[in-house]
Q: What sequence folds into this?
């Protein structure tokens, strides 16, 4: 098999590794492309293309993450990963680990780890690489990698999200939530919320944002009371879609451009957390992005009373 064919076969795995380390679709794609350039330039054929490329993309992602951490510390408001609608890598034997590790909640927990801890955890716990492979990938001893995994696992377990086991039930509740949103039924929306529900938004200072965080069903219901008629006036549409392995939605303007991405954390038949990504820079990989400020102005102008 030619090198380019081997690389294309491994591209889904490489992207999935890089995305979990970086939390960014665009940066993960760049890391994968850089991995190909290094593989193409390698003077000898590696014994294992998978081992070589997995190690290469991991090292690149670690370096990128170290510099990205500085930018994220200066980020305006809450920072969320770039939403991922479809994970290209599939492995039936590790489907549970893959689905759990790509959720917004899990990726935010990974942000607590150092870049090295994060890479070791992803390679070992998510993708099942042997400690020898992990050690080779990150340039540490196997003993050091075992310690890194133990430390990372402890941090993850302390805050790991516990989602409803039955995916069908979660999808059904998410469907009811979006139906109520489309129909403008705030009471039905509120009935689906946990008492201590949180609604958190990532606008990055580049999109309309009512506030960084709302806590409690009553406060979130007030947000819906404003949002629902606003979306109706702009002709926006809510498309049900799995986002980062969890129930969610893509909101588009009347021209089909992306306005916002929502993810829903569901437990005990209630919505526990609603995360919204409105920063246009984090939506561009999904297609044309709407000018949310212009959409908001249009909605407000259309609502002004006439004399």
A:
């Amino acid at each position: 098999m030619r090198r380019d064919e081997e690389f294309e076969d491994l591209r889904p795995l490489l992207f999935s590794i890089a995305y979990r380390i970086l939390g960014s679709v665009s940066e993960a794609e760049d890391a994968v492309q850089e991995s190909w350039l290094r593989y193409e330039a390698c003077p000898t054929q590696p014994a294992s293309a998978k081992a070589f490329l997995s190690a290469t993309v991991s090292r690149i992602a670690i370096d990128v993450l170290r510099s990205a951490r500085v930018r994220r510390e200066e980020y305006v408001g809450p920072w969320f990963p770039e939403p991922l609608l479809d994970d290209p890598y599939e492995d039936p034997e590790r489907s549970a680990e893959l689905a759990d590790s790509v959720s917004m909640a899990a990726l935010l927990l990974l942000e607590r780890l150092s870049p090295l801890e994060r890479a070791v955890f992803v390679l070992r716990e998510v993708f099942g690489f042997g400690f020898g492979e992990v050690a080779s990938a990150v340039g540490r001893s196997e003993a050091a990698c075992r310690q890194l995994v133990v430390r990372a696992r402890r941090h993850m377990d302390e805050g790991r999200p516990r989602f409803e086991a039955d995916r069908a039930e979660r999808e059904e509740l998410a469907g009811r939530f979006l139906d109520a949103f489309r129909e403008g039924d705030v009471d039905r929306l509120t009935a689906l919320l946990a008492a201590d529900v949180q609604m958190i938004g990532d606008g990055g200072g580049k999109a309309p944002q009512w506030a960084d965080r709302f806590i409690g069903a009553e406060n979130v219901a007030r947000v819906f009371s404003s949002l629902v008629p606003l979306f109706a006036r702009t002709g926006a549409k809510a498309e049900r879609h799995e986002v980062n392995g969890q129930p969610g939605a893509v909101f588009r303007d009347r021209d089909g451009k992306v306005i916002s991405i929502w993810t829903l954390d569901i437990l005990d038949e209630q919505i526990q957390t609603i995360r919204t990504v409105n920063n246009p820079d984090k939506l561009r990989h999904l297609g044309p992005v709407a000018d949310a400020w212009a959409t908001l102005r249009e909605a407000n102008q259309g609502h002004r009373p006439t004399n």
About this structure: The beta strands are 193-202, 213-215, 237-243, 246-252, 258-267, 270-277. The first strand starts at residue 193 and ends at 202. The chain has twelve helices and six strands.
